[in-house]
Specification:
11 helices; binds alpha-D-ribofuranose; two-stranded antiparallel sheet; Inosine-uridine Nucleoside N-ribohydrolase, Chain A; alpha/beta; binds calcium ion; 36% helix
């Protein structure tokens, strides 16, 4: 029985790879909809990019635009370069499908309240849409089986030394989500930085003679450059696809329970995920601890050959 799933995202290259991976496994993931949020690039672009990725993979998944800005913070996108599309490096087809007229937050609420069984949400961007849905319709908590979130950091941040981008963009939304009492599996930078797109792994994807895999290779080639230069790493960390890989093959990861609080005040620490392994309070999160990176790329490469 395929797992009913909604993906909330801000495409963004790594979101794009995550969506493509989700598209490859309809027997395991029943993707009911994609909601987009402002993050890597403004909302209009994240929505258009999601439509383009559905077109690339010949998918008819409905796409909904959600919130154009965080709850309280002014929007800070990851890509400040003027004219950036968020999917640089690849030429993607113009979408035939149009955006759904319903707001992404209302789609989340409607889907969750009408779901016959509690659903899984894959959260790949700032948590604004889900936070607004929880504020507007708190009864959805009982209809969410699990959140699998890419976000936060146990050690070092990426947008500031203290904070990871998705949480930093909307720390107040993250606080609403992390205190809602929903089961959360959190995949932090400490895990995703173990999953590097090395030249060998990129070559394996490039070797797949399929349009979606070629576009993925083009996107990943461009995506890696800033991180490789900044961190001096052997490749770019593959953040969001870890969420879908976890849903498809959870044994690729190990996890630990922790109590996680979100810093919403600090001058230097705004958006910090404060991780307490020793449970000063009851654990509210299961944090991934290690990942079989080679196994994850084997999964990704194999699955992309199906598109
Ligand atoms: O910090 C990495 C996260 O921020 C990823 O989800 C990336 O797409 C950006 O949204
Ligand atoms: Ca993202």
């Amino acid at each position: 029985m395929a797992r009913p799933l909604i993906i909330d995202c801000d495409p963004g290259v790594d979101d794009a790879i995550a969506l493509l991976l989700a598209f490859t496994a309809p027997q395991q993931l029943d993707l009911l909809g994609i909601t987009t949020v402002a993050g890597n690039v403004p909302l209009a672009l994240t929505a258009t990019n999601a439509l383009k990725l559905c077109e690339l993979a010949d998918q008819t998944v409905p796409v909904y635009a959600g919130c154009p800005r965080p709850l309280l913070q002014p929007l800070q996108t990851a890509v400040e370069v003027h004219g950036a599309t968020g999917l640089q490096g690849a030429t993607l087809p113009d979408p035939q499908q149009r955006l759904q007229p319903q707001h992404g937050v209302d789609f989340l609420i409607e889907q969750l309240l009408s779901a016959p069984v509690p659903m899984t949400l894959a959260m790949l961007g700032p948590l604004t849409n889900l936070a607004v849905a929880l504020i507007k319709a708190p009864q959805i908590v009982s209809k969410i089986a699990e959140l699998v979130i890419m976000g936060g950091a146990v050690t070092h941040g990426n947008i500031t030394p203290a904070a990871e981008f998705n949480v930093y963009v909307d720390p107040h939304a993250a606080q609403v989500v992390f205190t809602a009492g929903i089961p959360i599996t959190l995949i932090t930078l400490d895990t995703t930085h173990q999953v590097l797109t090395t030249p060998e792994r990129l070559a394996a994807i490039r070797h797949i003679n399929r349009p979606a895999a070629q576009a993925a290779a083009d996107l990943l080639t461009y995506y890696g450059t800033p991180d490789i230069e900044r961190y001096g790493m052997a490749g770019a960390p593959l953040h969001d696809p870890c969420v879908i890989a976890y849903l498809l093959q959870p044994d690729l990861f190990t996890t630990r329970p922790a109590q996680v609080a979100i810093e919403t005040q600090g001058q230097h620490t705004l958006g910090r995920t404060v991780v307490d392994w020793w449970h000063s309070g009851p654990p509210n999160v299961s944090i991934t601890d290690s990942v079989d990176a080679a196994g994850l790329y084997d999964l990704l490469t194999t699955q992309l050959s199906y598109l």
